[in-house]
Amino acid sequence: MRYSGFRVIKEALTGHKGWKPVWREPEPKSHYDVIIIGGGGHGLATAHYLSKVYGQRNVAVVEKGWIGGGNVGRNTTIVRSNYLLDGNEPFYEFSLKLWEGLEQDVNYNAMMSQRGIINLFHTDGQRDAYIRRGNAMILNGADAELLDADQVRAEHPYLNFEDARFPIKGGLVQRRAGTARHDAVAWGYARSADLHGVDIIQNCEVTGLRIENGTCLGVETSKGFIGASKVGCAVAGNSGRVMGMAGMRLPIESHVLQAFVSEGLKPVLPSVITFGAGHFYVSQSDKGGLVFGGDIDGYNTYAQRGNLPVVEDVCEGGMALMPMIGRARLLRMWGGVMDMSMDGSPIIDRTPVQGLYFNGGWCYGGFKATPASGYCFAHLLAKDEPHPVATAYRLDRFRTGRMIDEKGAGNQPNLH
């Protein structure tokens, strides 16, 4: 079934009796050409592109929980490509272009909203850094625009310009950036992959990897052994756990990143805003809630829950940027487990184990990278070579010293 306005009208006139399940609930086969561990955004996007673009239909996605129950449904929905370094900016610009055609590609309403993003700066040094970043974006085919304080005030008059501790001196804008409905992205990719023959197997936990003579033969699961010619791992914060089953110790730590949403308000924020004097970012959802977040917890954990110190820190950032946020009630909060790499940039590469491939280390940038991550991982699985925009995301770069330190914070994951 293809979704369309005509289909909605027809179902409305016929009592909505023609809708079908979005994807099948198959039992696992004994063997697949490719098994993707992880039914989040990256795993489902990989399955979609692997089947639709590269024509591989004997593919399974195994997920220990339910589709949309992990980080893909636990983020702040921001989509952008405003990066600096050569290893990152072409990749994220490729991702943004895929975002722009995503809904037509998967025939699903992902509620992609290109409302723009503005990164505020508060010092001359920050301004110079943003000028450099904007130039790097333009050189890689992205859009970037530098605003002075008066231009920012004209677009965002509700920010604190009068008595702020950190005066707003301007901002770097990317107009094509914005937000998308996170769980709808997962559902859209799952539906499209299923339509192209991929088996999506929920409530199927991987308990081990069967490796013989240096080759991965498949996965041990709660539903029994499933053989595969190739196994791809895309499990975000559980990367260390799963790859540990192959005897690998990854250059990754797991941290919680919390997100928050306020009560529903009348439209007030026209775009995504980030605070340059602290780690705070905010947008407004279609239901009116202010969706915002800040830094990760500084300690390692696999818990998907928040804590009060981070709530206080994030709310302080919001109050410093726009004091009016203090009158809004905090409705709910949640935590996602981030796989924080040593340099803050991701990994898409083969592993030393034959037939075993890894996609992880996305840190804060996982959601915005979803389409390109899936496309590049599918390319790697299909062709055994990296996609041109992902050649820098090698697993051995930490051994060879070729780190991609976008933030300039060194090799300490909790600083990224």
Radius of gyration: 21 Å
Low-confidence stretches: none
Distance between the termini: 43 Å
SSE ordering: HEHEEHHEHEHEEHEEEEHEEEEHEEEHH
Overall mean pLDDT: 95
How many DSSP H or I helices? 11
- Would you report the number of β strands? 18
% residues in beta strands: 25-35%
Largest sheet: 8 strands, mixed
Can you give a write-up of this model?
With about 425 residues, this protein is α/β, with parallel strands linked by helices. The protein contains 11 helices and 18 strands. The strands form 3 sheets. Strands 1, 2, 8, 9, 10, 11, 17 and 18 form an 8-stranded mixed sheet that branches. It has an 8-stranded mixed sheet with strand order 5-6-4-13-14-15-12-16. The N and C termini lie far apart (about 45 Å). The model has no long low-confidence stretch (mean pLDDT about 95).
Task: Spell out the key features of this protein.
8-stranded mixed beta sheet, 11 helices, single chain, alpha/beta, 416 residues
Which helices and strands occur, and which strands form pairs?
Layout: H1 5-13, E1 31-37, H2 41-52, E2 59-62, E3 78-79, H3 89-100, H4 102-106, E4 117-121, H5 124-139, E5 145-148, H6 149-155, E6 170-174, E7 178-179, H7 182-195, E8 199-201, E9 206-212, E10 215-221, E11 224-233, H8 239-244, E12 252-264, E13 272-275, E14 280-284, E15 289-296, H9 308-321, E16 330-341, E17 347-350, E18 356-360, H10 370-383, H11 397-400
Parallel strand pairs: 1-2, 1-11, 2-8, 4-13, 11-18
Antiparallel strand pairs: 3-7, 4-6, 5-6, 9-10, 10-11, 12-15, 12-16, 13-14, 14-15, 17-18
Helix pairs in contact: 2-7, 2-10, 3-10
